[in-house]
User: Which sequence fits this backbone?
């Protein structure tokens, strides 16, 4: 029965761009919908690329961007950045012009054509402010433009305050700290786990400065909390973890971090209240059930 549905799906996708795109995503993710029926497929990057290419040839804008991404990274095909650029330029004529423009800039950067990359990132910035992060990196490292840390800082601050993706906001916040602490710029922000204590204190002051500028800066709160947690300064981390939870900013599941902090500080009643609030929102949460039982035993044994 499953093979019959997959065969039918392939048949109806030959002349329908959207169906071909959905089939490509199904092979990429390992599942998808054929009509109202959910099907599980074996993940296959080559088949995903084949159907994505077919959808792109039929005019599907998302598929054009997907084909370019596969070609640029060599997923399910031979890496060919030049061919990826051709598909990204075709996608500029579709409704996904914002994403196509940003991806085109990234492709030029992969070819080390930095000036072209900056030009396209600036065009992408006029369409979608998400490109501020990439422009910030260009100015920070002097790629395609004259190095200017002040301009880079303004772009990173913009992304840290408006961007929807928490991971990008955190990376922007860490670059802000690098600039303010006059740390050597690296393509990946400094790993807080390997930080000497004097450097940690200097970075903490940078994050606090950003919080004073904008008290609702979620990324600064999270970076401060993580900074203190990795140095076992649980008392210092606690107010920032609580604030992240109030702001609903959770790049990772914040509950285990908050629970561990309560445990380390001996605040068992607060830990129990936390697990109980988790169970109110999700009564079937086995992790919260198990931890609540252990916390109550700890209280009983005191």
Assistant:
């Amino acid at each position: 029965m499953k093979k019959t549905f997959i065969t039918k799906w392939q048949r109806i996708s030959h002349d329908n761009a959207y169906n071909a795109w959905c089939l490509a995503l199904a092979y990429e993710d390992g599942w998808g919908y054929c009509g109202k029926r959910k099907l599980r497929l074996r993940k296959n990057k080559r088949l995903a690329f084949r159907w994505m290419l077919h959808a792109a040839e039929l005019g599907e804008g998302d598929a054009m961007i997907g084909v370019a991404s596969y070609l640029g990274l060599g997923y399910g095909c031979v890496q060919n950045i030049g061919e990826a650029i051709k598909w990204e330029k075709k996608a500029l004529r579709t409704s996904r012009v914002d994403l196509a423009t940003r991806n085109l800039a990234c492709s030029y950067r992969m070819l080390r054509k930095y000036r072209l990359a900056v030009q396209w990132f600036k065009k992408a910035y006029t369409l979608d402010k998400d490109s501020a992060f990439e422009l910030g990196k260009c100015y920070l490292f002097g790629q395609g433009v004259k190095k200017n840390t002040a301009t880079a800082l303004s772009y990173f601050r913009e992304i840290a305050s408006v961007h929807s993706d928490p991971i990008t906001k955190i990376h922007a916040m860490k670059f802000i700290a690098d600039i303010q602490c006059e740390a050597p710029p690296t393509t990946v922000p400094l790993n807080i786990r390997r930080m000497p204590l004097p450097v940690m204190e200097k970075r903490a002051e940078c994050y606090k400065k950003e919080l004073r500028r904008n008290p609702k800066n979620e990324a600064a709160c999270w970076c401060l909390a993580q900074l203190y947690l990795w140095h076992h300064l649980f008392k210092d981390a606690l107010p920032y973890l609580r604030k992240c939870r109030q702001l609903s900013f959770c790049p990772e599941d914040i509950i285990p971090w908050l629970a561990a902090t309560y445990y380390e500080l001996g605040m068992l009643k607060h830990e129990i209240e936390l697990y109980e609030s988790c169970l109110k929102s999700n009564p079937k949460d086995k992790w919260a059930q198990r931890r609540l039982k252990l916390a109550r035993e700890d209280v009983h044994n005191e």
